[in-house]
Every structure is written in structure tokens, then in C-alpha cells.
Amino acid sequence: MKQLHRSLHVLRRRTQTAIRNSSLHLAFTLPVLVQLFAAVGLVGYLSFRNGQQAVQVLASQLRSEVSARIEGELESYLGDPHAINRLNATAFSNGDLDIEQATKGEHLLFQQMRIYPKIAFVYCGSARSGEFFGILRSPETGRLELSYSNPDTNFLRQHSSLDVRGYRQHFLGQTEPTYDARVRPWFKSAISTEGPIWTEVYLAFTTGLPNVTASLPVYSRNGRQLLGVCATDVVLPEEFRTFLKQLEIGQSGQAFVIDRQGNLISSSTDEPLMSAVGDEPELLAATQSQNAQVQESATYLLNRFSSFGRIQQSQQLTFALDGQRQFLEVLPFNDGFGLDWLIVVVVPESEFMGQIQLNTRITIVLCGLALAIALAVGTLLAQRLTSPILQLNAAVKEIAAGRWQQRVEINRTDELGELADSVNQMAGQIQQSFERLAEQRNAFSRFFPPEYLQFMNKQSVTEVQLGDHVSRKMTVMFSDIRGFTNMAEKMKARKTFQFINNYLQRISPLVRTHNGFVVKYMGDGMMAVFPYTAENAIDSAISQFQKVQEHNQQIDTQSPSTFAIEIGIGLHFGKVMAGMIGEPDRMQPDALSDTVNLAARLEGLSKVYGAALIISETVRRQLKDHDRYQLRFLDRVIVKGRTEEIAVYEVLDAEPDMRRRQKLETLPAFEAGITAYTNQDLDTAAQHFHTVCTQHPQDKTAQLYQQRIQYLLREGMPKNWNGAWELDHKR
User: Fold this and answer.
1) HSE of 687 in the Cβ direction (CA atoms, 13 Å)?
2) I want to staple 685 with a disulfide (CB 3.0 to 4.6 A). Which of 97, 401, 469, 677 is the partner?
3) 556: domain CATH number?
4) Could you list the residue range(s) of the whole structural domain that residue 174 is in?
5) pTM listed for this prediction
């Protein structure tokens, strides 16, 4: 014991002496060499020890990724039929689909089949007598055909070809026996659940192929009467099976989908998924698959859980097949509409072990090579590199602090000298780049205004991504120069652009000064939004009309190259989605919603009613003080593309002084005429509007009501008419 203690003391003393007497070069390189030896040894050891763990991690990630892709594809593949059913149910209840008489509606179903090529059959059945009406994709030719049955066909399914627009052409034939939609599984399932549902997998009546059907009951608009059921067929498993075959699951991995009874719904193998039992084909049980991986995986799951129905959550398992370890993941899939399937992914361990072992050997070789190079280079360059590196470090810190004029003075011709030159060049290039970025940022603001960035909650235009959007209620403005086409025909191209730009330069700032921003320019028109108050939008519009009137007062009426400007503006309030549309390499801001469409319609109505500024009832309701503006009720209309009526008003504050005074003077007679017109007292209404036109012959709205009254007196009053007028043009 004493001898050992004496030996350790001598070794410690000699080590201290060696360190004190060693050169700086050795003191610098020795710790590095020791660390390199330790690092290489540790890396080699961990590479050997963690091989199996890496296999499991990679296998788990692969299984999870493949399962997630399959689940996502199923959700996408099986989500479209329910969306189609909802559209067709609405069309059914609104009368756009004539299911019972089969007189109209085939073009609607035709367009759906064109949009969704994976759908095999779209149809609806009536609860009245089992009438049937739908569009199918021929399994032989892929051609779309109309198929329907009703009392006129003795409930035999008749088929007709369709033209390119989806309208029936030629009779193709009929099929037997008689067809009663009410007894079909898809009809009964939807009625029993009173909501969207999937049927069990079955053989299609028309094609004889395995199908699964999404169905939805259709009720009357008051929800009290069952009208029928709309359904969509998806052929299984051919379309989805192609997707499974294209998945990359190693060299020999497999993926398949089974129902809770263990029947194969789809598989990445090439084997048939139907088996013959007597004269009736049935789905193939996974435990009877000819593929060993599929068969053993299903058998293992059945033995482990006793029943496929007991697998309620994702499981990652392992089992042996022919002495080789297999990684298995099973994931339940339930779409909430009745589908209850299992997604299974199985991958052999051998898919990973060969690569892991190769990577381990490569790691060891590379570590050894790196160690040898580090020993040689570190020993030769340790002292030579220290001083210039410190100098470079100090210079780079100065540059990083923003002092771009900093330069490095190292008179060397080796790599450090080149590095010093590169740092100097980098500093100059960075300085130039920042100057160019500042110029580009200023240029971007012309195409992407700061107000829009602030509205999108973005600090910089570089943060904007395709699809970024904000959805909120706001006031939408559409403005347009009336008669601009005729003006443009009298001007040259250069003068046309100069005219438009001068006009937009006058009115666009009036949008921003009232807390709004321009979404886009549309030739001589403009769309803007006001996110805060409706008063902002109206005040901006009034300011624009005043600016236009100032322009008209200043023009030279004797010059043929100058024109008086008359504009129309429409305002509507509602929910708007404002964001970025286009493609990754070409984006632009836009605003989308029914609110935007209706605002555009209102701008078009300003021409019809001869009003400068038209607002909707929803805008008027947003006003905190209804007496702030001089409003005149114009009409209740149903614009093209809508079924609901909307009340519209004109803001007299936007009219020229003379026209505003004339409309205010005739306002009592005008309102009396509106009241009589609404109460269907047409003779009294005609007298009032005659009075208005006598005092103010240019009142286009009063003239419009006179024309309507003459039409109603001539043609008669429509049944159940409430005073609303339906327009058959957009703008």
C-alpha cells in the first residue's frame, strides 16, 4: 500500500514538471488530441450500442408516417362523397333536382362526376314511391350516363348518354328488374340514422364491383317531411389500392386496411381481394391472404386481441415471421359517419439492420480518418493560426455590430489571407445588400401597402405566405367610373393610362385617410375595405365624390382631350376573408366572400337607380347615428345570383348640391310613392312618382318605379308579391 502511494506521488510530480516545462504548442495540442481520442472512442462505442435502438426509432417513424399518410388519404378519399351529398340534398330540397319526374338536374350531377373522377355513382332516391335519379360512370368505358327510374319507366332503370355540358342525348337502354330506391341498403341506412352514414361494403347493383356508399337523408325546407335520400358510391378497393402500392415501405413492407370483421378492404399486394363462396363473391379475410406478411400480421393481431373490434387505439408491436423480426403498427380509422376500419403497416427488421450496420462501419472509418487528419493539421498549424484568427474574430465582431467600414489587414497569401480578403469583400457586399434591401423594401411598399401588412398582422412582406388570410366583418367598397369605355375609345393608350392613374391618385389617399385600404385596382374600378366602422367607408366615399366634383369644375370643357368624371360606389357590410391568393412565385392580396360579391352588385345598381352612393341595409344598421347622413330608401331587390332580398339606400350627401336639393325637396312624395307601391296601391303610387318626376325630371329612380307600375298594371300583380323586385343582370 505504501509502495503504491509512493508511485502515484512520483507520477503526479513528474506530470506537473512536464507541464511546466512543455512548450505552448504542446500545451495547446495535447488537450485537443486527448479529446479527439476520447470522442472517437465514444462515438464508436455509442454507434455499436445504439444500433438496435436506432432500428426501432426508424421503424417507428416509418410506420407512423405511412399510417398517417394512409389515414390522410382515406379521409380525403372518403370525405368528398359526404360533401357531394350535402350539395345534392340542397339541390333536391330546392327543386333543382327533379327526382320523381327526371326532367332536370342531370347537368349538376354531371359536373360533380367531372370534378371527382374517383366517384363511381352520384344519385338520389325519392321517399314518395322509390323513384331514382343519378349519374354513373360506366365500368366498361368510363363514360358518364344518366340513370333513372319512376312510374313513367315502370320503375325499370333507363340509361341515357350525356353531351359535354351534362344534358341527356340518346337513350341507351334499360335494366331489369324493377328498382325501388326505398328498399336499397343506402336508403334504409340513412333513414334509420337520420343523418350522414356509410353502408357496409357490398356488390354494386349496376357494376357488380365492391362498393361503399355514403348516404344522407333529405328533408323539406321546414325539416318536417322526408323527401328522400341522396347517396354517392365509391368503388373499392381499386382507386385506393393504387395509392397503397405506391407507398414506399422499404423493399418488402406491406400496408393494408381491414374492417372490424377482418376482411381486406384494400392492400398494397396484387392478390384479388374477393373470394368466391359458392356462387356469391365475398371480401377476402386478411387471415386467408396469400401474402405471408398480411396473413401473419392479421393472425397475430387476432390472437393478441381476441377480436379486431377490441383494437381501439394505435399500437406499435413486433412479431416473428420465418425467424425474422417484423415491426407492425395498427391504427384505427373512424370518420364519424359509420366507417370503422383498421390500418395496418408491417415492415421487416432486416430492412433497417443492413443500413445501420453499414452506417456504423462508415462512422468508425470516418472518425478514424478525422482523428488522423486532426492530429496532423492540429500539430502543424496550432501556433500559426492563433494570432490571425484572433484578429479576424475582432474584425468580424465589428462588422456584426453594423460597422460595415471595418476592414481586416492581414498580409498573407495562405488561406487566412484569403479569408481576410473574403471578410473584407463580405463586408462590402453586405453593405451593398442592405442598401439594396432598403430600396427593395421601399419598392415593395408600392405593391404591398403597409396598411395591408398591419391588417394581416405581419411585420414585413417577407413574412407573407401564400394562403395567409384574416377573416372578419368589415365594410367593402366597390367604385367604378361610369362610361369609361366610351372615354377610352376617344383616347390613345398612353392617355388612357395617364387618365386612370391621375384619377386613382386622387381618390386612393381618401381611402387610407379614413382607416381603410385598397385591396386591388380593376381597370377604372377599385375595391377597398374598411375594417373598423361603416362611417369610415361612407365618409371616404363622400370625400371621393367631392374630389371628383372638384376635378369636373376645373376641366377645360373646350378641350376634346379632357373629360368630366362620374363615378358610382356601392357599400356592403359583412364577413370578408382577406388574404393572399395566386401561386408561390406570384401572389397578390384579395378579398373573397359573398359580402364582396354583393358590394360589387350594389355598385352596379348605382347605374340602375341613378344614385352616386348606394349602401345596403346591413351598412345602415352599422351606423351609430342614423341621422348623421341624408339617406333615401331606394328599393328592396333580389340581385342576380341570390335568392334573398336586400334593402338598398342612397346617400344623398354624395350627390352634387343641385341634385341633392331636388331629391330632398321631392323626398316626401317619393316616400309616399314607395309606401303605396309596397302596399300594392299602384294608382296612388303612380300619382306620387309622377309628382316627383314633374319636379325632378332627372330622378332615375322615380322613372324606374313608373316603368314598373306600368308593367304591373299591364301584366298583373305577381302572386304573393311583397314589393321586392328581382334583377336579371349582375351590374
Assistant:
1) 6
2) 677
3) 3.30.70.1230
4) 79-236
5) 0.44
